[in-house]
């Protein structure tokens, strides 16, 4: 049997299928709270949730008590550009453990009457054994990118298919800050 040649067109077609399945998965959730850091990954996910669920999607950011004001302003600006309602939950005790963050998000979800919590976790997070991925899995947070077998590079390609330049710029700025700080 001859092996199929991988081309840009075949990769784009596969990616389009993944995006379609993610959109369908999101629509089936009915209501959802998006764990929103303002990173490119979570920005794309929040945008998809907003497009598929309208007002039945909300973005929530959990912040430690000493979070830089300018970064929070960037996150708020990106959420506004997407058109998704955004709330901030302060983590007053200063503990930045992802498990606690996801517990807080689940609690906020219940309080607001949202059935689900989604996160932008992807296969690379699992391969790197990131605590955010491990905690999200333990707390039964839905990770649509991971469920589709998507890697970070696949998620970033989704961003080129839809969305506007300003959203990309704001989220990319946040991503650059995270790399510099080692997050």
Largest sheet: 4 strands, parallel
CATH class: Alpha Beta
Order of helices and strands: HEHEHEHEHHHHH
Name the CATH homologous superfamily: HUPs
Quote the average pLDDT: 81
Order of adjacent strands in the largest pleated sheet:
3-2-1-4
Question: What is the beta-strand fraction?
Answer: 5-15%
Q: And the CATH topology?
A: Rossmann fold
Rg from Cα: 16 Å
What is the total number of structural domains? 1
Helix content: 55-70%
What class do helices, strands and sheet pairing give? alpha/beta
By CATH, the architecture is named: 3-Layer(aba) Sandwich
Work out the number of β strands.
4
Uncertain spans, ≥5 residues at pLDDT below 50?
Answer: 3-13, 163-169
Task: Describe the protein.
The chain has a single domain, classed as Rossmann fold, CATH 3.40.50.620. The termini are far apart. It has 183 residues and is of the alpha/beta class. Helix 1 crosses helix 2 (40-53) and helix 3 packs antiparallel against helix 9. The longest helix is centred in the first third of the chain and has 22 residues, at 8-29. The chain has helices at 8-29, 40-53, 69-82, 98-112, 123-127, 131-138, 144-147, 152-161, 165-181, and strands at residues 32-35, 57-64, 85-91, 116-118. The chain is globular. It has a 4-stranded parallel β-sheet, with helices on both faces.
């Amino acid at each position: 049997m001859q092996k199929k040649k991988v081309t840009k067109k075949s990769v784009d077609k596969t990616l389009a299928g993944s995006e379609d399945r993610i959109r369908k998965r999101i629509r089936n959730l009915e209501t959802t709270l998006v764990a929103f850091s303002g990173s490119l990954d979570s920005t794309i996910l929040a945008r998809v949730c907003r497009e598929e669920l309208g007002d039945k999607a909300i973005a929530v950011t959990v912040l430690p008590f000493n979070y830089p004001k300018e970064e929070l302003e960037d996150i708020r600006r990106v959420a506004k550009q997407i058109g998704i309602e955004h709330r901030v939950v302060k983590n007053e005790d200063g503990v930045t453990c992802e498990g606690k963050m996801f517990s807080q998000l689940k609690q906020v979800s219940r309080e607001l009457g949202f059935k689900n919590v989604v996160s932008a976790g992807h296969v690379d997070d699992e391969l790197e054994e990131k605590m955010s991925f491990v905690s999200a899995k333990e707390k039964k947070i839905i990770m649509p990118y991971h469920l589709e077998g998507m890697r970070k590079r696949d998620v970033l390609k989704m961003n080129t298919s839809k969305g506007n330049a300003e959203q990309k710029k704001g989220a990319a700025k946040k991503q650059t800050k995270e790399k510099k700080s080692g997050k």
